[in-house]
């Protein structure tokens, strides 16, 4: 891989500072990253064994959750905040495989996601990308592209996967989620993954690697993660470790937590439905 800054890099990108989207891309084995991002990915790999598998585990949960919402939950419009750089399989592809008319708005605060997303979506009229920050929830909800693409009178699937751990307690993640859910119609889904803190060293290692390289990445007790879902009813199996989370297959045999590899303790997933 070439370490020079490639031509596709938007001018506002600082290639000397690692970005979450690019470090995650590096962990997933993608090509849209710089040397500094690959060095950060190495720090992750040193802090928790199988850090790359952990990234893939999160990505597989993303696809399972999207499929659940579209196939079982009847969701045909999705707002995916903190969507990341396009990779092997993306939210709109998983959704449109089931319902070709499903509409998706991607939101990310990294401008590189916009430039790469636009290239991927040049021919896709039901999907768009917006650059905005989760913390500017009002701006996201009022954004003309969001309003043009999504019908707020009908249920929307709000996806916040692999990013709420980047919002500090000081920034009140639960309030942000509540404000985003507020204008959504009854039947809307909230699909979220988060990092638990049960005292396991792999959880601490992941958080430390993230704080060290990116300046954010907080683990939280499971009761705190449950509060992200605002008391709304959860789709079975509720908030679960990703390796045990198969919302489309509630009867599937899943591994016992005691049999987990350490990295399998680092992420939990859940979907709640707005009454
Ligand atoms: N959601 C994708 C997934 O789970 O595969 C990507 C997750 S990646 C680890 C986190 C993404 O969230 C990055 O692309 C990053 O740029 C974005 N992000 C982080 N903080 C954000 C914020 N405050 N607002 C919007 N996007 C944010």
Question: What is this entry, summarized?
Answer:
With 275 residues, the chain is α/β, with parallel strands linked by helices. Helix content is 37%, strand content 12%.
Give an overview of the whole structure.
This protein is α/β, with parallel strands linked by helices. Helix 1 crosses helix 2, helix 2 runs antiparallel to helix 9 and helix 3 runs parallel beside helix 4. It is built from ten helices and seven strands. Helix content is 37%, strand content 12%. Strands 3-2-1-4-5-7-6 form a seven-stranded mixed beta sheet. It has a single domain, classed as Rossmann fold, CATH 3.40.50. The model has no long low-confidence stretch (mean pLDDT 94). The N and C termini lie far apart (49 Å). Helix 5 links the parallel strand 2 and strand 3. The site of S-adenosylmethionine has 21 residues, from helix 1 and helix 3.
Q: Structurally, how many domains make up the residues?
A: 1
Q: Give the SSE string.
A: HHHEHEHEHHEHEHHEE
Average pLDDT score: 94
| CATH A-level architecture | 3-Layer(aba) Sandwich
How large is the count of helical segments? 10
CATH class, named Alpha Beta
Order of strands across the biggest sheet? 3-2-1-4-5-7-6
Number of strands: 7
SSE layout and pairing:
Elements: H1 20-27, H2 35-47, H3 51-72, E1 77-81, H4 91-98, E2 103-108, H5 111-120, E3 127-131, H6 137-142, H7 144-149, E4 157-160, H8 173-181, E5 189-194, H9 201-214, H10 222-227, E6 240-241, E7 268-273
Parallel strand pairs: 1-2, 1-4, 2-3, 4-5
Antiparallel strand pairs: 5-7, 6-7
Helix pairs in contact: 1-2, 2-9, 3-4
């Amino acid at each position: 891989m070439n370490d020079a800054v490639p031509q596709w890099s938007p001018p506002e990108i600082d290639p000397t500072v690692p970005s979450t989207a690019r470090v995650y891309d590096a962990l997933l084995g993608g090509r849209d990253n710089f040397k500094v991002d690959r060095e950060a990915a190495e720090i992750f790999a040193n802090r928790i064994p199988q850090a790359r598998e952990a990234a893939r585990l999160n990505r597989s949960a993303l696809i399972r959750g999207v499929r659940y919402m579209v196939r079982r939950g009847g969701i045909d419009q999705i707002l995916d905040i903190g969507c990341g750089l396009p990779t092997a399989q993306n939210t709109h592809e998983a959704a449109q495989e089931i319902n070709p008319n499903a509409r998706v708005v991607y939101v990310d605060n990294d401008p590189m996601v916009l430039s790469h997303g636009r290239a991927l979506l040049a021919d896709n009229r039901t999907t768009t990308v917006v650059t905005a920050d989760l913390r500017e929830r009002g701006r996201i909800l009022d954004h003309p592209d969001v309003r043009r693409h999504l019908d707020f009178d009908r249920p929307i699937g709000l996806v916040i996967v692999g990013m709420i751990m980047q919002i500090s307690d000081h920034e009140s993640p639960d309030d942000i989620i509540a404000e985003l859910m507020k204008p959504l119609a009854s039947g809307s889904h909230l699909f979220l993954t988060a990092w638990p803190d049960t005292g396991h060293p792999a959880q601490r290692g992941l958080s430390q690697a993230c704080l060290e390289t990116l300046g954010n990445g907080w683990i939280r007790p499971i009761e705190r993660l449950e509060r992200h879902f605002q008391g709304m009813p959860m789709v079975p199996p509720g908030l679960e470790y990703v390796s045990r989370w198969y919302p489309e297959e509630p009867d599937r045999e899943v591994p016992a937590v005691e049999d987990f590899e350490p990295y399998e303790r680092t992420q939990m997933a859940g979907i709640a439905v707005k009454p």
